[in-house]
Amino acid sequence: MSDTPITYVRDTMLPQQAPPTSEVGPVRWARENLFSSPMNAILTILSLYIVYTVISHVGPWLINGIWDADSLSECREIIAAKGDGHHSAACFGVITARWHQLVFGYYPSELYWRPVLALLVFFVGIAPVLFPSLPRKLFIVSMVAPFLCFWLLWGGSIWLPISIALGFGVGVVAFKLLSVSVSSLVAIIGAILLPLIYWLYLSGPLAAGLASIVPLGIEFVPSRSFGGFMLSIVIGLSAIVISLPLGILLALGRQSDLFIIKTCAVVFIEVIRGVPLIVWLFTAQLLLNYFLPPGSNFDLTLRVIIMVTLFASAYIAEVVRGGLAALPKGQYEGGDSLGLNYWQSMQLIILPQALKISIPGIVNTFIGLFKDTTLVVFIGLFDPLGIASAIRATTEWNGIYWELFLFIGIMFFISCFSMGRYSLYLEKKLQREHR
Amino acid sequence: MSTLTDPPKPGFRLSQLIYDTRYRSITIQVIALALIVAAFWWLGNNTVNNLNALGKDFNFGFLNSAAGYDINQKLIEYNNQMSHGRAALVGILNTLLVAFLGCIAALIIGVFVGVLRLSKNWVVSKLMAVYVEGFRNVPLLIWILLIGAVMSESMPQPREFRGENATQSMYFSDNVAVTNRGIWIPRIGFTNSVSGEEAVAPVEGAAAVASGGLDWLLVLGTLGLSLFAMRLVRQRADRIQQATGERPTTWYQRLGLLIIPVGIVLFLLGATIVSPYLKGFNFTEGIHLRNSLIALWFALSLYTGAFIAEIVRAGILAVSKGQSEAAAALGIQPSRTMNLVILPQAMRVIIPPLISQFLNLTKNSSLAIAVGYMDVRATLGGITINQTGRELEGMLLMGAFYLALSLVISGGMNYYNRSTQLAER
Hints:
The complex is a heterodimer of chains A (435) and B (425).
Chain A: H1 25-33, H2 38-63, H3 72-82, H4 93-97, H5 99-104, H6 113-130, H7 139-154, E1 156-157, H8 159-181, H9 184-213, E2 217-218, H10 228-254, H11 259-274, H12 277-291, H13 300-326, H14 329-337, H15 342-372, H16 384-392, H17 402-430
Antiparallel strand pairs in A: 1-2
Helix pairs in contact in A: 6-7, 7-8, 8-9, 10-11, 10-13, 10-15, 10-16, 11-13, 12-13, 13-15, 14-15, 15-17
Chain B: H1 16-19, H2 21-54, H3 84-117, H4 122-136, H5 140-154, H6 171-174, E1 177-179, E2 182-185, E3 187-190, H7 213-244, H8 251-269, E4 271-274, E5 277-279, E6 282-284, E7 287-289, H9 291-318, H10 321-329, H11 334-364, H12 376-388, H13 391-420
Antiparallel strand pairs in B: 1-2, 2-7, 3-4, 5-6
Helix pairs in contact in B: 3-4, 3-9, 3-11, 3-12, 4-9, 5-9, 7-8, 9-11, 10-11, 11-13, 12-13
Protein name (chain B): General L-amino acid transport system permease protein
Transmembrane segments (chain B): 23-43, 87-116, 128-151, 216-234, 255-274, 294-319, 395-416
Organism (chain B): Yoonia maritima
């Protein structure tokens, strides 16, 4: 303490001052995020320039788009009548005029309700799988749904899907009876062989006989009429649904101790993965008839679905194998020490954990699979791109490119992007570890 | 299977094949084997019957007969009198060419975008996110068709480059021409070629040039030796640093080693740049990159680049922050932290999925069909099959080519994985 008298003592608090404008709000944000260093500033300006260039070129084209025109020439007349002096406007009229074709292909227009209903049935069927909180009784719908969808899409006699479904019934009954009376191994073999025999020799005559007694059915629609996004969705969804269990089985086979099973799984997976899908599609188109009994004529769309399914199942198998390999060895040993047999320990201990780990990979495979459905255009099916070139071949819309590509691209983007987001959501929901 | 060598005491009963776990695995495998053999027999039998019914046989003799079709892009000598086998080889080389170019471009794009997406700069990272999501979620085929359409619909025609008041001009001081028929870039010719090829003057009045395989072998050989010498210099610097702690400055030695020998060889061979120019209705001379190659190459690299960007990003994020902090604590310069600490660890995470992306790109190059690029599917799996009616043989060969390529690459990847894996208990 000094002796000098204190001349001033503050006895009131000053009000808080606002921080300098360079340290708050958008200015500060911009300083920290956009212009923190010369390099950053250059990058920012460059990116803004790119964004500006794209928007200034594409923006007017999009906004001035003509939505109500029945042909390209009509659309160009409308644009010329607007008198902007330049031709920068999109002709989205092609989408409104050919909307049904892009969505349903050449499906008979009075039957559009059938694919729509089939999609609804599919969603009801898949709901109990996706959302565990729903009542378990809905699984009955899940079991009926594939056959119902098949029948709704292709039509024809109702007895064909029913007699095919009966095959699975035969398998289940055989398994139940044999596993009680003989042993589980015999039961599994029986559950595989008996339905195969049934499908090969009995189901066809049974369906034909029932159809001749009680002719019950709806109008048959040949596969050639399928097209547009409907075809993509049919191929994509059926391949997704069938390839998941197949892929899991393959992955288990590849991890198996049984030498022959393991070798077969490895060879199958590597051969399928080593060759591009397009080669497999051409195989389905050109070669499958060589491998089947002489005279058998197999629907091209079904062949494609089978090929795409096998292709996807090999990829799924590798993803699931990654999940199986990531589990600590103690989980397998724990299952054994509890006295569970192979299938029990897989079902109760290993697979729930392994599949949880593999979810992102599985969904990515599905996204890739859905995108790959566009390849069927090369073997003459009318997927959206095939429909687009068919539209371009008509006199009304000869010479239209960008609008169709944009539309198809956006549709695929929406579906694939939302699948990706769902996988992220699922990943977070199933995350049990502390983080 | 040590349990199998231990026979049961009370004799063997048939029911043990089903109930006894020691024998059950054999039963299962035997049944599986029988089913597989039966299935293959059935398929083979059907194939033989079908081939007989069609009056076809199974042989690869068609590979030696004259192909009779032209291929517009060839890396080796080919004309339509040569065999189907030669045409298939041209196609294979074209596949490998676009795959190679695509892998390099995709890697560059992917690393750039992956790093930039982690940038703190909001605009840049969002722009990169838009690029990545856009390309990952839209089918590759659409991108190929789109870029093909851009190339053939929006680019100027060659005649627009003609005359005094041409509406279009070439880029890079009249060296690169971008037209709707493809892109022309300059090529290098040698006035003192040693390859023995006949030298031709590209333009009247200019020096005659030739460029043969031997010339390029000489240049590349010199480059290889230079790289080897550069490595020796670096190893010597490493040794000195280990011994004395002082690292000698070597960058000028290495730069000189890289440039001077190749420069001397190029000078001795008389390397000259031969630019494309307009002749008649089209450009001539230089290297013509066809629209099909450009569209396929760009689409493949942009598409795969988006996937690689995600891999690179994940790899960098996988290295924990403690690593760079520890490097700083040890006094390693920030510029060397990336090279010495972060990248080696990130690489372990990045390389395996990266190589499988390269594999995907190679397989996706079969989408060449969309733009008419003459790859192996178009030659062997397309025109050859159509002309000879040998679907079975052609598809088998094509499948075998892709399969061999995949197995070689994935074998290399497994080898790399084993060599870089962390040793665990």
